[in-house]
């Protein structure tokens, strides 16, 4: 699917100011929409929106279908009479997912005590029961088991014995109702935000990881669709092989899909996943797109990703099925890193935009990430992504060779972050997206994620006065200049 020439900003909602020490889908989200509109932006890109664990990683969610209750607006809970008052914002600029999660859950449980289900609540539960009931029971059972992973529960629950599940539903009925309530609020708040965005001419650009977490409702409820052993552990796991950046590769540890089983079911799980993502977002980026063509399979128990093998993915069979079911696919393919001609042929066959990142560009004139080499405009260009340092942070740590090349390429003795923003916006790429940290000219302290590091990620939060009118005006002028 081709997108109109446009520009946007990358900012995950958890990075908004306000709330319980974490961004929410409340007033600050609507103020950010006003900033985008004033800045002439037509896209708000976010990271995955599912429920997260204590580390806050949106790429390691407990569900591919549920929403993150931490994003529920406390201001709206007060407005709806479910709380007397919203708590003051937690001090500090960084998100503390553990503290925020504890506080938000306490507030939600208080709000649930006052909740009188309107007709829309039961309608929501019926329409979404196909995923909601498994997610609610998974979450309730996980809480009852002290947070332990599902394959550490008793055999009857681990293997989903019908009698054991029915008994659990009776014993945990109140908790199940609370989980339904929390999901109802998330979707209600997010759908309202999306309508407000579309009313301002802004599209929501979402993100789904290709793989799901082992400790998730998805794997527990659909064990036959994954490569698992008799105890529920993965028999093979996902990752990427050794490359220029890592001698041992990356061992992600996600369970791998049994694509033969998925094909026998007509790829129904993937149809539902993409349909759900598009109920929240107008556009969806699929992380690690190359895994659909071929994926790196690592035997479980390996200490690194070195001893793996490439296995053929579903490729065109999956995308033909998705297109037949959903029509033209508003999907962006993450095609960064080592990408084979076969992967690019698959992407181009379905006209899926790829990605370009300027931070990768400044090595030699033939580098594919340099704008003069963009022979195909069907791309989204970024100064950097959530997995990169901010552009000022990257510049501070770049090699002297990269800096020298960038100076000559930009014609600037000491380039500013706005020179890189201008380069992205002026390129022929159909879409240009700039991380909010770059618009604010922030350094490495504002980096969202450092891949391969277990702590200190997903914590950056924007100051309340950061999205200023002057910044919107500057962005609007450049967007007009380059017809975005």
From TrEMBL:
UniProt KW Glycosyltransferase keyword: yes
Transmembrane segments: none
Biological process annotations from GO: carbohydrate metabolic process
Superkingdom of origin organism: Bacteria
Classification via SUPFAM superfamilies: (Trans)glycosidases
Keywords: Carbohydrate metabolism, Glycosyltransferase, Transferase
GO molecular function, one term: 4-alpha-glucanotransferase activity
Protein EC: 2.4.1.25
Reactions catalysed, as given in the entry: Transfers a segment of a (1->4)-alpha-D-glucan to a new position in an acceptor, which may be glucose or a (1->4)-alpha-D-glucan
Keyword Transferase: yes
Xref: InterPro entries: GH (IPR017853), Glyco_hydro_77 (IPR003385)
Family per record: Belongs to the disproportionating enzyme family.
Protein name: 4-alpha-glucanotransferase
Naturally occurring in which organism (per UniProt): Rubrobacter taiwanensis
Lineage start: Bacteria, Bacillati, Actinomycetota, Rubrobacteria, Rubrobacterales
Gene: malQ
């Amino acid at each position: 699917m081709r997108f109109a020439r446009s520009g946007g900003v990358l900012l995950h909602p958890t990075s908004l100011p306000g709330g319980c020490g974490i961004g929410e889908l409340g007033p600050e989200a609507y103020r950010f929409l006003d900033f985008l509109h004033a800045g002439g932006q037509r896209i708000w890109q976010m990271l995955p929106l599912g429920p997260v664990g204590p580390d806050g990683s949106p790429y390691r969610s407990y569900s591919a279908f549920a929403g993150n209750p931490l994003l529920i607006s406390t201001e709206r809970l007060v407005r709806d009479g479910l709380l007397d008052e919203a708590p003051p914002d937690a001090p500090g600029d960084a998100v503390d997912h553990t503290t925020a999660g504890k506080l938000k859950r306490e507030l939600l449980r208080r709000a649930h005590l006052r909740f009188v289900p309107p007709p829309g609540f039961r309608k929501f539960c019926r329409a979404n029961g196909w995923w909601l009931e498994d997610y609610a029971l998974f979450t309730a059972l996980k809480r009852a088991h002290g947070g332990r992973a599902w394959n550490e529960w008793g055999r009857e629950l681990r293997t989903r014995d019908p009698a054991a599940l029915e008994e659990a539903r009776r014993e945990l009925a109140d908790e199940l109702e609370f989980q339904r309530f929390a999901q109802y609020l998330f979707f209600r708040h997010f759908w309202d935000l999306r309508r407000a965005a579309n009313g301002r001419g802004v599209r929501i650009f979402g993100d789904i990881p290709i793989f799901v977490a082992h400790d998730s409702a998805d794997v527990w409820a659909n064990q036959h669709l994954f490569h698992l052993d008799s105890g529920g552990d993965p028999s093979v796991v996902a990752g990427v092989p050794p490359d220029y950046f890592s001698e041992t590769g990356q061992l992600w540890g996600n369970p791998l899909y049994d694509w033969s089983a998925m094909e026998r079911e007509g790829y129904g799980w993937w149809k539902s996943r993409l349909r759900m993502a598009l109920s929240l977002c107008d556009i969806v980026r699929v992380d690690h797109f190359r895994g659909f063509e071929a994926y790196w399979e690592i035997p479980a128990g390996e200490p690194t990703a070195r001893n793996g093998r490439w296995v053929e993915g579903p490729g065109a069979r999956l995308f033909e099925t998705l297109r037949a079911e959903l029509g033209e696919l508003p999907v962006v393919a993450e095609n960064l890193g080592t990408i084979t001609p076969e992967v690019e042929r698959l992407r181009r066959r379905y006209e899926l935009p790829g990605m370009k990142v300027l931070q990768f560009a400044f090595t030699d004139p033939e580098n594919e990430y340099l704008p003069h080499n963009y022979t195909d405009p069907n791309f989204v260009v970024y100064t950097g992504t959530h997995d990169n340092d901010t552009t000022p942070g990257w510049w501070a740590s770049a090699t002297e060779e990269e800096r020298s090349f960038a100076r000559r390429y930009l014609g600037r003795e000491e380039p500013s972050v706005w020179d890189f923003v201008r380069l992205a916006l002026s390129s022929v790429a159909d879409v240009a997206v700039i991380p909010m940290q770059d618009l604010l000219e922030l350094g490495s302290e504002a980096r969202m994620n450092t891949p391969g590091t277990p702590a200190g990620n997903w914590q950056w939060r924007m100051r309340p006065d950061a999205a200023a009118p002057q910044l919107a005006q500057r962005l609007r002028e450049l967007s007009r200049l380059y017809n975005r």
